[in-house]
Specification:
The chain is α/β, with parallel strands linked by helices. It is built from 16 helices and 16 strands. A hairpin with a 2-residue loop joins strand 2 and strand 3.
């Protein structure tokens, strides 16, 4: 999820420096923290796993696999354990030669979010119980995921510190070692190095996938792994990417939001009749061209823009956004996302969702300039929390009384010196094998699709890397895979991307 979502929720989430894990033999395993007389009697082992064996039918073929669920340490510069990261590792068991078998390491965002979302919503072998458009249904539960990418790649789902079951092991460990853009990248790169070594995956083609803030994470990790661990990736996958530290400025950022507004207004049938008669994919190029060629240069003229031009722009913005010319002019052509989410369906008494604007919310008052809550995120927490707890305990046999933190306390978070977009460019320039795939939902208002395109345009000004960069759009929101049709096509796209990148690696890595 985006780094700014539900700050109040994240800030009040449970922060525990020690916990305990009970495994199938019933033993409680003490950590060093307990031996030092910590005040809590909850015990947490930062290095313990449980292995189970399963099968899944994916694309009509039965795939046998093992699941490793548990923790693996994070060490400081002196080799002392400072945290244990919870992970779930799925390994196909009918392939003996791992040298050509890809491995994909998966992160979600927040930055205080667990890996649950893509784990049981997208790429993993099980899928939570939701309807075909992604809305919660009861009874809660999970089922086989027939679209999982486990047929073509092994997968590791990683929970950063204080998310999921991951915890710091000692109270004297500074939070600054974990909670910041560059600290996060540094310790996770070390952890990945340990994992790849411990599970003997150095020969395997390697991929990183991140969603939302996870895209910031994996973009930075691509260079960190190359520079400090000499680990070269085959692919980075960005699902609903952030701005990756690529500067926009307030005027550019405001203008670039219009195509997303148009997509949402089209979905809710708030555009003029001639636009509604067209398919969304036909409408958006028209809006994108207007945004780049007319709106963006005009807005940079600010208060010196001629009144007639300003009025004409407001009329076109109204046509494409579903808002009134009056509202647009009152806001000097710059419509904040909060105002848009509140205003679009105001006359109907609804707000629209932030992360997925297909969702509707109901506020206490119709008046105001922002929604009371994020309708889509409350629905997703409703849908995901029971099945992940049920699945880890009952199917993967990982038994603990710790709280599985859907969102954990990682604040204050150091956002300074975000160079992750540039770092990914450097990693791709250095490594001819490295490919990039970007997936976006048209109705995502937090990490909108047009800004994802803008990232790619600005990340590679030379244009020499664009043959290894791919973008795809889907008719849903931030977690586009929650819509059943997009779950199928987006997983197929991942499968194709991974296979293509692996095939490319059969050639010498040179320009």
């Amino acid at each position: 999820m985006m780094k700014s979502i539900f700050l109040s929720m994240v800030a009040t989430a449970l922060f525990v420096c020690a916990g305990w894990a009970q495994f199938p033999n019933g033993n409680q395993i003490s950590s060093d923290n307990d031996k030092k007389g910590a005040s809590s009697d909850l015990r947490f082992d930062p290095d313990a796993t449980v292995v189970t064996h399963h099968t899944a039918t994916i694309n009509g073929k039965v795939i046998p696999y093992k699941a490793v669920a548990g923790t693996m340490p994070v060490w400081d510069e002196d080799g002392k354990t400072i945290a244990g990261l919870f992970f779930v590792y799925y390994e196909r068991t009918d392939i003996k030669d791992k040298s050509t078998r890809p491995i994909t390491i998966s992160f979600n965002g927040g930055p205080g979010s667990a890996s649950v979302w893509m784990h049981i919503g997208y790429t993993g072998p099980v899928l939570l119980n939701i309807d075909d458009e992604g809305y919660p249904v009861q009874p809660y539960g999970f089922k086989e995921n027939p679209y999982s990418i486990l047929d073509v790649t092994d997968i590791v789902y990683v929970d950063p510190v204080n998310t999921g079951y991951s915890r710091i092991t000692r109270k004297d460990v500074p939070k600054e070692k974990f909670f910041g853009i560059n600290a996060d990248i540094k310790y996770l790169a070390g952890w990945i190095n340990t994992f790849v070594t411990r599970y003997n995956r150095w020969a395997s083609p390697k991929f990183l996938i991140g969603e939302s803030y996870g895209t910031t994470r994996v973009s930075g990790l691509a260079l960190e792994l190359q520079d400090n661990y000499w680990m070269y990736l085959n692919g980075v996958i960005q699902v609903s990417p952030t701005d990756l530290g690529i500067e926009r400025g307030s005027v550019t950022a405001s203008a670039l939001r219009l195509p997303y507004y148009a997509a949402t207004a089209w979905y809710h049938k708030k555009l003029p009749a001639d636009l509604l008669q067209k398919d969304l994919i036909e409408v958006l190029p028209e809006v994108e061209n207007f945004t780049l060629n007319e709106l963006l240069p005009a807005m940079h003229r600010g208060g010196f823009l001629e009144s007639g031009v300003k009025q004409s722009l407001a009329a076109k913005m109204a046509r494409y956004s579903g808002l009134s010319e009056k509202t647009i002019l009152q806001n000097n052509l710059s419509i904040s996302t909060n105002l848009f989410w509140k205003e679009l369906l105001r006359d109907e008494g609804f707000t629209v969702g932030r992360l997925d604007s297909r969702y509707k919310g109901i506020d206490k008052r119709v008046a105001g300039e922002s929604p009371d809550f994020n309708a889509e995120l409350t629905a997703w927490l409703h849908a995901f929390t029971p099945p992940i707890n049920m699945y880890l305990r009952n199917q993967l046999n990982y038994k603990t009384d710790l709280t599985y933190n859907m969102f954990g306390n990682v604040w204050p978070w150091d956002n300074k010196n975000n160079q992750t977009g540039e770092n990914l460019r450097k990693a791709m320039a250095i490594n001819p094998y490295l490919h990039l795939l970007v997936q976006s939902g048209y109705y995502d208002g937090a990490c909108d699709y047009f800004n994802a395109k803008y990232n790619m345009w600005q990340m590679d000004p030379s244009g020499k890397l664009k043959d290894r960069m791919f973008w795809e759009g889907y008719r849903s929101g931030h977690m586009m895979y929650l819509r059943k049709e997009d779950l199928r096509t987006s997983n197929e796209s991942l499968r194709s991307f991974i296979s293509k990148a692996v095939r490319a690696a059969s050639q010498p890595a040179k320009y």
